[in-house]
Amino acid sequence: MTIGIAGAGAFGTALGVALARDGRAVQLWARDAAAVAQMQASRENPRLPGVTLPDTITLTAALDPLFACETVLLAIPAQALSGFLGDYGARLSGKALVACCKGIDLGRMTGPASTIRDLVPDAGAAILTGPSFATDIARGLPTALTIACADDASCALLQQLLSTPTLRLYRTTDITGAELGGALKNVMAIAAGVTIGAGLGESARAALITRGFAEMQRLVTQLGGQAETLAGLSGLGDLVLTCTSAQSRNYRYGLALGAAQDFNTTTTVEGIATASALRQLSLDLDIDLPICTVVADLTTGRTDVKTALHALLSRPLKEE
Ligand SMILES: NC(=O)C1=CN([C@@H]2O[C@H](COP(=O)(O)OP(=O)(O)OC[C@H]3O[C@@H](n4cnc5c(N)ncnc54)[C@H](OP(=O)(O)O)[C@@H]3O)[C@@H](O)[C@H]2O)C=CC1
Ligand SMILES: O=C(CO)COP(=O)(O)O
């Protein structure tokens, strides 16, 4: 069975490489025909330098080969997902669609798997998420991820299909917990980066990560997800990775923000839009999300680091 992957960015390509190396045939689609031609010729993706694309990956800029696959991984940024599904949802109905992105859609206020469920109701909506840098997956380093899908039997099939000897998938039916964990950890990673970038210290970062996790639990449980999911790979696992590693783009963006330095605006930093979505959700649902709100205010220039820090530290003292 050929696995389709929409989006030949770092993550889509890394997943394709891992699956192809383990014997799966992969159709890797990108919208830019010139970039596809260049990758075909070089068997390398500039977004994932130093990794040779196995022969069993077929690159394509045409959509028909992608739509011929029964399982399609959607590895495009979270804010682009609803547009893609709006354009092509009719061609994707009945398939297993696995979101491979992390974020909350600013227009719809939904996580990636929920966006699939809403826009392509008769597809099997799933999400693949958890702690993993694309380069680690592509290098064949050991990685463990969460696959979430409402139906356990379908989830088990996807778990088998997408696991390899070095890419180990755990499954859950808690889509809400899994998709929100992945979305929120990026916002927390920006905050952690700001903390270090502004010279506030590693103790402050540990406090930020811990209170960030409390914030994640508050939102997830109020929206019907499970605290246990957040304690797993898609929540705590990815939170720890992204808040402590300079490989993370969200963390690096936060570092630059905290140090008042420029940052390349073409880099995919999912936490920026997601922070604004969460700020709005906090107001709409009356849920206390102080760190997400501060990150949204920082990234949109509504506040500065000094004021943001004061806002967090001057909150009333309370029970842990
Ligand atoms: N990189 C990583 O280590 C990991 C990333 N992820 C998640 O994967 C998702 C993708 O990130 P990543 O691959 O790193 O990002 P990249 O910036 O490397 O690539 C993004 C890809 O998406 C494509 N794209 C953007 N907008 C659209 C659109 N409207 N329609 C079709 N294709 C589009 C881009 O194409 P073009 O070049 O034409 O703009 C590009 O190929 C994110 O949600 C991220 O959080 C998850 C785990 C690890
Ligand atoms: O999600 C990731 C690791 O699990 C990648 O993080 P960044 O998008 O911050 O680089």
Automatic annotation (TrEMBL):
GO biological process: carbohydrate metabolic process; glycerol-3-phosphate biosynthetic process; glycerol-3-phosphate catabolic process; glycerophospholipid metabolic process; phospholipid biosynthetic process
Binding positions (substrate): K102, R249, N250
Residues that bind NAD(+): G7, A8, G9, A10, F11, G12, A134, R249
Active site feature: K185
Keywords, alphabetical: Cytoplasm, Lipid biosynthesis, Lipid metabolism, NAD, NADP, Nucleotide-binding, Oxidoreductase, Phospholipid biosynthesis, Phospholipid metabolism
Residues annotated as binding NADPH: F11, R31, K102, A134, R249, V269, E270
Binding site for sn-glycerol 3-phosphate: K102, G130, S132, K185, D238, S248, R249, N250
UniProt domain Glycerol-3-phosphate dehydrogenase NAD-dependent N-terminal: residue ranges: 3-153
Domain Glycerol-3-phosphate dehydrogenase NAD-dependent C-terminal: 174-309
Location(s) in or outside the cell: Cytoplasm
Pathway: Membrane lipid metabolism; glycerophospholipid metabolism
PROSITE patterns in UniProt: NAD_G3PDH
The enzyme's E.C. designation: 1.1.1.94
A single GO molecular function term of this UniProt record: NAD binding
Record's GO cellular component terms: cytosol
Source domain of life: Bacteria
Family stated for the protein in its record: Belongs to the NAD-dependent glycerol-3-phosphate dehydrogenase family.
Function: Catalyzes the reduction of the glycolytic intermediate dihydroxyacetone phosphate (DHAP) to sn-glycerol 3-phosphate (G3P), the key precursor for phospholipid synthesis.
Protein name, entry field: Glycerol-3-phosphate dehydrogenase [NAD(P)+]
